[in-house]
Every structure is written in C-alpha cells, then in structure tokens.
Amino acid sequence: RILGMIGKLLAPLVPKLVDLSDTTLTLNEINSKISYPRRYLRAALGPIAIMLALVGFRLSAGDNVVDAIYFSVVTCTTVGYGDMAPASRLERCVAMVGLPLVVTALTEMLAEFDRIGIRRRIREDSAL
C-alpha cells in the first residue's frame, strides 16, 4: 500500500518513452509528448534533496521549522547573513560537507535548466 502511494508520487518523474522509429509520428507529436515541467522538476531534485536533508539535520539539532528552513536556504545559497551559525563540531562538519554539495547541485540544476530551454527552442524551431 505504501509502495503504491510512493509509486503514484514518483510517476510524474519517470520519463515517458517515445518510439522514434515509428515513422507515423510527426515532429509535432513527438514534441507534444515531452513534459518540460517534469524535466525541470527532475533537474531540481538534487538541490531540493540536499536542502531537505539540511533542514532535517537542523530540526534534529533542536531548531524550529522556520529557523531550520531559514538556515538551510541562507547557507545553501551562500548568502550567510551571520545571524545563525553552526554551534557544535558536528554541525560545522555537516555544513562544510553540505555546502560544496549543494553549490555543485545548484550549479548543475541551473545548467540543466539552460540545456532544457535550448533543446526546447531547437525542437520548437524545428517544428515550424
């Protein structure tokens, strides 16, 4: 039962396969089967997962939900206002490991967003 619910939640993330060898499909039909929101969501999953892990870590350290989210967003976006800082050695280690991971994931997400946009423009121009 739980697996069924998880399957329903993850179903939009699974790419739908299109048989490109089927010559009866037109370019417009192939393009219509591409789900761009799903592609953008998949590209954002890495940073979202890392940020949620940092939020969970801060919650387990005793922060309330708002402070945990605030700390994670400020840290992950490298803004670092300085009003909150990791107190223990473990928190500092998690921040030191998490920061390069999330910066890399955010960079890759933005690059993938750009690639998705370029591919979309190429496909739409080819369809004209």
Automatic annotation (TrEMBL):
Q: Where is the Potassium channel domain?
A: 52-109
Gene3D superfamilies tied to this protein: 1.10.287.70
Pfam families annotated for this entry? Ion_trans_2
Q: Which domain of life is it from?
A: Eukaryota
Q: Keywords, A to Z?
A: Membrane, Transmembrane, Transmembrane helix
Q: Which residues form a coiled coil?
A: none
Query: Which segments cross the bilayer?
Result: 40-61, 94-113
Instruction: Please report the name of this protein according to its UniProt entry.
Output: Potassium channel domain-containing protein
Q: Lineage of this protein's species?
A: Eukaryota, Haptista, Haptophyta, Prymnesiophyceae, Prymnesiales
